[in-house]
Design a protein that fits this description.
The structure is a single chain. By secondary structure, the chain is mainly beta. It has a single domain, classed as 5 Propeller (Tachylectin-2, Chain A), CATH 2.115.10. Helices cover 2% and strands 48% of the residues. 42% of the residues are buried. The N terminus and C terminus are likely disordered.
Length: 284
């Protein structure tokens, strides 16, 4: 795991706070994380916070808020800048929530950037997963949705699409990368000449693989029941560590939000044969 000077490891953990006061009080959340006690609900009520670590296991919360009216964050570094992608719920009157981007030179102070997806095939793009490939291109994997309300509520096949960019803000849609019923929240990484996609589904966390990262085939359900992954990180020379991993009381993330924690798990093949760390991630 490589740390960029000035950014520390802030890029590795960017967590979404979902109505934190309600969550802390243990009140139930409806599908999509919408609290029955919050008018409007949904991503507009979410905030993106950050935490920093020197070892990837013990974390310290950073002061302040990174982005407001923002949800489902994903961060990558390119040169001396950190690119933060998220579901932007503050795009102007009459505009649906969709992927947005903000950049930072220190991992703390972010500036919102103009963001476009040329050829967007749906009403909105949500749940971004972004990484840099070996050619230096930004690869954006996202859930393309035509839903007017909660995107996860549609029980038809869901499409995870791929879009490419040279500068990280202007993307061109390439096409559907993976299609399967009720998919949300993809995470994509490259490991040992194979592209892996971990994505939430009604049956649990699904694993799909690809040789070129453009079209994925279903492989299996993640062995750990009731778990979902966020930001898999390749640990040089030995394994793939999924840091962090969310433990939910329900397999699908748009059920109710019970108490959760973050725990690293490891796999030497990127799928199956998972070993859970005995040490949970700590954040104080």
């Amino acid at each position: 795991m490589k740390s960029t000077p000035g950014l520390r490891l802030a890029a590795i953990l960017l967590s979404t706070v979902v109505a934190y006061a309600q969550f802390e009080a243990g009140r139930p959340m409806q599908r999509g994380g919408i609290s029955p006690n919050l008018p409007g609900g949904g991503p507009y009520q979410h905030k993106v916070l950050s935490a920093s670590s020197q070892d990837g296991l013990t974390w310290t919360r950073d002061a302040g808020v990174r982005m407001v009216h923002a949800s489902v964050p994903c961060a990558v570094t390119a040169g001396d800048r950190l690119f933060l992608y998220y579901v932007d719920a503050d795009r102007g009157p009459g505009q649906p929530e969709s992927v947005g981007c903000a950049t930072s030179s220190d991992g703390i102070h972010f500036d919102k950037q103009p963001f476009t997806i040329e050829g967007l095939p749906a009403r909105k793009a949500v749940d971004p997963s972004v990484l840099l490939d070996k050619d230096g291109k930004f690869r954006l994997y996202y859930f393309a949705s035509n839903a007017s309300m909660d995107p996860a509520a549609d029980q038809k096949d869901h499409e995870i699409h791929l879009a490419l960019s040279d500068d990280g803000t202007h993307f061109r849609n390439v096409g559907a990368a993976f299609t399967y019923p009720e998919l949300v929240d993809p995470d994509v990484f490259f490991y040992k000449n194979t592209w892996f996609m971990y994505v939430f589904g009604r049956r649990g966390t699904l694993i799909a693989t690809s040789g070129d990262g453009r079209r994925f085939d279903y492989k299996q359900v993640l062995e750990l029941p009731g778990w979902g992954t966020v930001a898999p990180v390749s640990l040089e020379g030995r394994a793939v560590g999924n840091v962090p991993t969310w433990r939910r009381g329900h397999a699908h993330p748009h059920e109710r939000w019970p108490a959760h924690r973050r725990t690293p798990v490891f796999s030497r093949k990127g799928r199956g044969q998972l070993r859970q760390s005995r040490r949970p991630l700590l954040c104080g």
